[in-house]
Amino acid sequence: MDAGEYEESWNLTGSLFQDQLSAAQWVQALVQVRQPLGELEDRDVSGSTSASSLPDAPDGEYMVITYASSFEHEDNAIETVTLRREGEEWLPVGYFVR
Quick check: is 74 in a domain? Predict the structure, then answer.
C-alpha cells in the first residue's frame, strides 16, 4: 500500500477480507482515504492484541496491530491492521487509518 500498489495489496489479503470487498472497491477506498495522506514518513508499532473473536467476524485466531504513523500530509495518524490466521499464514483482513 505504501508504494501505491493498491490492487496488489488486495491480492495479499485473507479470504475474509476478499469476501467482503472486491479489489475495485478496495482500490477506490484507498484512493479516497490513504492516498491524500501522502508518502509515509514514519511508522511505529504502538500496540498489539490477540483475539479469538471480533465484532462482525467469525471466530478464529486474530492479531490486531496498532501503529502510530506520520505521513506527508498527516503527522498524527493511527493505523490499525487486523490479521487472521489462515492455515499457517497470518493474512490481513482489515485496515483502518484515522
Answer: yes
Rg (CA), the chain: 14
The model's pTM = 0.92
Split into its structural domains, the chain has a count of 1
Q: Which residue has the cell 488486495?
A: 10
Please, what is the Cα angle at 10 between 96 and 89, to 5 degrees?
90
Q: How many other CB atoms are found less than 10 A from the CB of residue 62?
A: 20
**3-class DSSP string for 4-47:** CCHHHHHHCCCHHHHHHCCHHHHHHHHHHHCHHHCCEEEEEEEE
What is the mean pLDDT of each successive set of 10 residues along the chain, which is 98 residues long?
A: 94 96 96 94 98 95 98 97 97 96
